[in-house]
Write a structure and sequence with these properties.
11 helices; globular; two-stranded antiparallel sheet; 10 strands; alpha/beta; Rossmann fold; eight-stranded mixed β-sheet
């Protein structure tokens, strides 16, 4: 009989090197709890990441992990999923990592609808490099690269995901780990590409978007009346633009949109019967291909 899976099973030996109070701690706690409550053994999950504070997550959660290049967590995750589609694959990154240099990957993986979860630690700046403006920095925000205030319109990841083909689109707040855990559980269980955009306060460099800032402004979509319809794309888009329309006085969190359609893996006959890693390739002769390469 298999032993019950607990949060302790996901505790890694490595000690987190984030700043005290960093929102990443809340995301890590929620993710460990979500995996435990879903009963997914550590060896059946893989976390891929890019570069940044958020991208240290594979070191701090006891699953398989791969820390790749800046902005490349999604192509790594898609490769892992294709090699063994039985695995629970989670990609992690920050707003600069994923919505900046990784934007092209973000767009194309949504339309392909890979069955994986993408957690974006959205602290609205580049924290690892000490606080430069990112694609999601608010208008007027003063940073090291925008001493007179950001003049560019912030990127809207929720609206982009709804229009771009993601089949599960959500937002959460790192300061509410109980709610974040439930959103992560839904995202991981969803069959298709699931975005979880997490409002993650950076206590060291972002003095605007603080815990207090989000606590005052965030409200849960599932608690609203009339009830939010997650199957209505038009309604989801309306909620996605609410922060911009209200000058960030109202920030909805929860599931914005959910739909079902065939995943990318469903279209591949090569993995219909078994995963690629389960094929016996011991008698495959690659000497010809190798000689061509050299």
């Amino acid at each position: 009989m298999m032993a019950e899976i607990t949060v302790m099973d996901f505790n890694a030996k490595e000690r987190p090197q984030w700043c005290p109070g960093c929102g990443n701690f809340g995301i890590m706690t929620a993710l460990r709890s979500a995996l435990a409550e879903l009963g997914i053994p550590p060896h059946m999950s893989v976390i891929s990441s890019g570069i940044g504070c958020s991208s240290k997550m594979p070191h701090y959660v006891r699953t398989y992990g791969f820390e790749g290049l800046h902005g490349r967590s999604l192509p790594v995750a898609s490769g892992i999923k294709l090699a063994n589609h039985k695995l629970n694959v989670i990609a992690e990154g920050g707003d600069g990592d994923g919505y900046g240099i990784g934007m092209g990957h973000f767009q194309h993986i949504m339309r392909r609808n890979y069955d994986l979860t993408y957690i974006v630690h959205n602290n609205q700046l580049y924290a690892l490099t000490t606080g430069q403006a990112s694609p999601t920095s608010q208008l007027g925000m003063k940073t090291k690269t925008t001493p007179y205030g950001v003049v560019e319109t912030p990127f809207n990841p929720i609206a982009s995901a709804i229009l771009g083909g993601a089949t599960f689109v959500s937002r959460a707040f790192a300061g509410d780990t109980a709610h974040l855990k439930e959103i992560l559980k839904q995202a991981i269980k969803h069959r298709g590409f699931a975005l979880v955009d997490v409002m993650q306060p950076c206590v060291t460099f972002n003095k605007l978007n603080t815990y207090e800032f989000f606590t005052k402004r965030c409200y849960k979509l599932e608690e609203q009346m009339p009830k939010h319809d997650i199957g209505d794309r038009g309604q989801a888009l309306e909620k996605a633009f609410e922060p911009e329309k209200t000058n960030f006085e109202k920030i909805p969190i929860g599931v914005f949109y959910k739909t079902e359609r065939a995943t990318y893996e469903d279209t591949l006959p090569q993995i219909k019967d078994k995963a690629l890693v389960d094929y016996d390739v011991s008698d495959v002769d690659i000497s010809g291909a190798y000689e061509d390469m050299i």
